[in-house]
Design brief:
283 residues, two-stranded antiparallel sheet, 11 helices, elongated, disordered C terminus
């Protein structure tokens, strides 16, 4: 078969033999194979090294919109890229960067066909995996917060109220950048409570100014928007089906599946046919 999506190469036209072979192999109609090819071609061309970021984003959206019902509700490049990584490159699932240049057409069609055969609970399980950022089997407040920040294209900036991951500390960002005391990108936080270690000066270098014992440094990757953290906790409360005196900070897969397995709105979205019958042509 001469169809490829490899880096630096154009996708060749489908011949009749290719169409029939793929149709029989993956139980698709001629029209569906042709439709897959048009989407794959758009994606491959738009995500080529020469394409601009805008072209790549648009091409990714075009290539995925029929497969991902969520993309019709949320036009979000980050979400699409993450879904791509789980669906088309399961070995690289969870990584931030998806290399679409080495995805061949046969694998693309196979993934579409396999998705089409999945029932609602299987698709719901897939959605859980996509949202489970750290892949620990639970949806934590940090997982949900990260998704909210990415969906809103929010980047933490100086002046933002923030929550520090895995710590019960909040404050305002006063500094972002590299430091002399350690490698990496750091956030200097003015804590709301006197639970810090300094006043913004570490060693002999003043990175920012705040009251004594209110200054605190943490790697930038470990801070999250305070508002998004609050929203994440509100989402988790919706799944808190057990009476408890302590605040629930994560959602188990069982609770996620139990709560959503009869949700009619989500069922309608997830069960849309990824390959609509645009022509009534049989194999």
């Amino acid at each position: 078969m001469g169809v490829t999506g490899s880096k630096g190469r154009k996708v060749s036209p489908l011949n009749v033999e290719d169409v029939y072979d793929l149709g029989r192999k993956y139980n698709l109609t001629i029209a569906e194979v042709a439709y897959c090819h048009s989407l794959f071609t758009s994606m491959t061309q738009a995500t080529s090294p020469a394409a601009s970021p805008t072209e790549a984003s648009h091409g990714t959206l075009l290539a995925f919109q029929s497969l991902s019902p969520l993309s019709q509700e949320l036009e979000l490049d980050w979400l699409l890229a993450r879904v791509f990584s789980f669906l088309f490159q399961p070995d690289a699932a969870g990584t931030e960067k998806v290399d679409l240049h080495h995805l061949d057409f046969d694998s693309y069609v196979r993934a579409l066909s396999q998705w089409r055969e999945k029932g609602y609970l299987q698709r719901l399980d897939f959605l859980f995996q996509v949202l489970d950022i750290d892949q620990d089997g639970t949806l934590s407040a940090s997982d949900i917060c990260f998704v909210l920040q990415q969906m809103g294209r929010h980047e933490v900036s100086v002046g933002d109220p923030v929550h520090i991951k895995r710590e019960n500390r909040t404050g305002v960002v006063r500094f972002i950048g590299e430091t002399q005391f350690a490698e990496g990108m750091w956030a200097g936080i003015e804590l709301h409570q006197p639970a810090g270690r300094h006043n913004g000066t570490v060693g002999e270098i003043s990175y920012f100014k705040c009251p004594d014992r209110h200054g605190y440094f943490v790697l930038l990757q470990n801070v999250e928007s305070h508002e998004h953290h609050r929203q994440a906790l509100e989402v988790i409360k919706l799944f808190d089906i057990v009476e408890s005196t302590s605040e629930q900070t994560s959602i188990s897969k069982k609770d996620f599946m139990d709560q959503l397995k009869t949700d009619s709105w989500l069922t309608e979205i997830l069960m849309r046919d990824p390959l609509p019958n645009i022509l009534s042509i049989t194999k």
